[in-house]
């Protein structure tokens, strides 16, 4: 894909963590939502991010692809730090739009409310970024999209507009859209929270399938059982910091902090 | 309601069709139409003028409406302010007034400038149609600018966020997501505005542009007939409206909207 760097440089890239969040701060006006969050996800990691409502889970995830601009801190993807500069109002802003757009194509986000483009068919949604952002030839993109549709079980919905799909189908289409850019990291923000209970399963099945395949994923979720099954690392956000983190077995069966114990008691 | 129920064979539709045929037969038998062949060539030209006025001014007006709407929906105050002011003035004053201000006001001012009178533009500035085109364009832009403001603002934030999240540049996101999505939202209103625009075109006859309305007025002066030419004019506008409505329906059907 990239030009042949020196052997050392390439291996450094490969061994670099897929995502590194360093000392992330985010303030909305007076409200300090993130007070210094640091997080590392290695390639192949499935990191579940849990925490109470308003604890800043979405904000943290959205800072990773700069949908939300951090007030302070740094984000690196595969060892490449997103260039930032002071915005003159006490925060930061990206200083290299080209770089940001390139990095964003390697981070695919799946939203709570799907956010499919309503004026395009399911297929149109899936090939949009490959064709119009990454410059993949159209027929190639379509061929790949059809495989992805099969994978998420939507082959028969190829030419349907999103408004005519159920929530579960829309979210599976959104996951296919995310896979179409062949992302290095997938960001899921409560992918099943907007779904009717009977539709949650079909979406979780697709995500579990991706986790087994070794995809690097950051997953904000309220589905504790699911997080425990698919994640190899769980992060508990509270009060703007990572209150506790570790392997799921330990986090769920032997939580140390009182806040986490309370939180787990309320959600289970 | 299934399509078979909406067929023309429904009883009330049959009655309406019968009444329609009755009117046509009555009009054909009892009214005078001998003037029609003499004016048919000019009528066709008049319809042509009406149509190109409609299409040119709607297209230009729409091109203006996009930045007007965008400025109001997302622009800084020094863009949104003037855009809003423009739309308010256009929508708050009669089109006839705007037309006369441009033609009799602006048009006669130009005549005082020797530089303009001697320039290449003078033949255009001396004729009436540029003022008609300008007034109709600005009017359409004013109304449609307001519609596009709402349409731009109404595109769900999440879809624009998804565009950014997948690496689109602001220009790509605008071209691929925001604009087509807004146009799609505005399409039903756009259809109505275009029909209104059609029915606003006869105003240009007041500044000597010869559209189909002007031809019919001429017929009335020449023949002293009242109802026949007006009936024909009504029929022509109704047919044009029908074609416009069908064309927009076809456009809207390209991206179906879920009716719930
Ligand atoms: N754009 C914004 N402007 C102002 N405040 C915001 C904004 N986005 C989020 N917040 C606030 O930041 C805090 C954290 O929000 P965030 O959405 O990250 O929480 P969350 O952990 O994802 O919660 P939930 O589980 O309810 O989704 C909340 O108090 C929220 O009100
Ligand atoms: Mg959230």
Task: Sketch the major β-sheet of chain B.
Answer: none
Strand runs of chain A, count: 12
Distance between the termini of chain B: 13 Å
Give, in order, the helices and strands of chain B.
Answer: HHHHHHHHHHH
CATH superfamily of one domain in chain A: P-loop containing nucleotide triphosphate hydrolases
Q: What structural category do the secondary elements of chain B indicate?
A: mainly alpha
Number of helical regions of chain A: 10
The mean pLDDT of chain B is 91
Summary tags:
heterodimer; A: 268 residues; alpha/beta; Rossmann fold; 6-stranded mixed sheet; 4-stranded antiparallel sheet; 10 helices; 25% strand; globular; disordered N terminus; B: 260 residues; mainly alpha; MetI-like fold; 0% strand; flat; binds adenosine-5'-triphosphate; binds magnesium ion
Summarize the structure.
The complex is a heterodimer of chains A (268) and B (260). Chain A is of the alpha/beta class.
């Amino acid at each position: 894909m990239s030009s042949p760097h020196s052997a050392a440089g390439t291996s450094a890239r490969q061994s670099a963590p897929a995502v590194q969040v360093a000392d992330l701060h985010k303030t909305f006006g007076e409200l300090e939502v993130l007070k210094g969050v640091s997080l590392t996800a290695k390639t192949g990691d499935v990191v579940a991010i849990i925490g109470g409502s308003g604890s800043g889970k979405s904000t943290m995830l959205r800072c990773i692809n700069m949908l939300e601009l951090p007030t302070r801190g740094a984000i690196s993807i595969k060892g490449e730090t997103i260039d930032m500069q002071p915005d003159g109002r006490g925060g930061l802003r990206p200083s290299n739009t080209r770089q940001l757009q390139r990095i964003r194509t390697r981070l695919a986000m799946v939203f709570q409310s799907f956010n499919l483009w309503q004026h395009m068919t399911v297929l149109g949604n899936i090939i949009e970024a490959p064709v119009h952002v990454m410059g993949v030839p159209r027929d190639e993109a379509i061929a790949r999209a059809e495989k992805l549709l099969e994978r998420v079980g939507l082959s028969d919905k190829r030419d349907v507009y999103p408004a005519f799909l159920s929530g579960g189908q829309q979210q599976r289409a959104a996951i296919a859209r995310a896979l179409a850019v062949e992302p290095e990291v997938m960001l899921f923000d409560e992918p099943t929270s907007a779904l009717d209970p009977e539709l949650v399963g079909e979406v979780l099945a697709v995500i579990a399938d991706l986790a087994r395949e070794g995809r690097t994923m950051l997953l904000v979720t309220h589905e504790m059982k699911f997080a425990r099954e698919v994640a190899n690392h769980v992060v508990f956000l509270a009060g703007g910091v990572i209150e506790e983190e570790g392997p799921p077995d330990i986090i769920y069966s032997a939580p140390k902090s009182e806040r986490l114990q309370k939180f787990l008691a309320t959600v289970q | 309601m299934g399509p078979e129920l909406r067929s023309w064979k429904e009883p009330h539709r049959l009655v309406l069709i019968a009444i329609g045929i009755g009117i046509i037969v009555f009009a054909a038998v009892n009214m005078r139409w001998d003037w029609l062949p003499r004016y048919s060539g000019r009528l066709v030209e008049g319809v042509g003028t009406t149509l190109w006025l409609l299409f040119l001014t709607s297209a230009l007006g729409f091109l203006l409406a996009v930045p007007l709407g965008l400025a109001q929906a997302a622009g800084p105050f020094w863009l949104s302010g003037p855009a809003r002011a423009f739309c308010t003035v256009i929508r708050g004053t009669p089109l006839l007034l705007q037309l006369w201000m441009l033609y009799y006001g602006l048009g006669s001012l130009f005549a005082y400038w020797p530089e303009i009178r001697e320039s290449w533009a003078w033949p255009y500035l001396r004729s009436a149609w540029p003022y008609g085109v300008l007034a109709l364009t600005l009017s359409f832009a004013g109304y449609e600018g307001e519609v596009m403001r709402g349409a731009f603002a109404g595109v769900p934030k999440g879809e624009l966020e998804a565009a950014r999240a997948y690496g689109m540049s602001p220009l790509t996101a605008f071209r691929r997501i925001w604009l087509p999505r807004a146009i799609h939202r505005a399409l039903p209103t756009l259809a109505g505005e275009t029909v209104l625009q059609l029915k606003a075109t006869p105003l240009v006859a007041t500044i000597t542009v010869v559209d189909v309305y002007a031809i019919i007025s001429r017929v009335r002066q020449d023949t002293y007939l009242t109802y026949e030419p007006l009936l024909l004019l009504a029929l022509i506008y109704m047919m044009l409206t029908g074609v416009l409505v069908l064309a927009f329906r076809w456009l809207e059907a390209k991206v179906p909207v879920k009716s719930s």
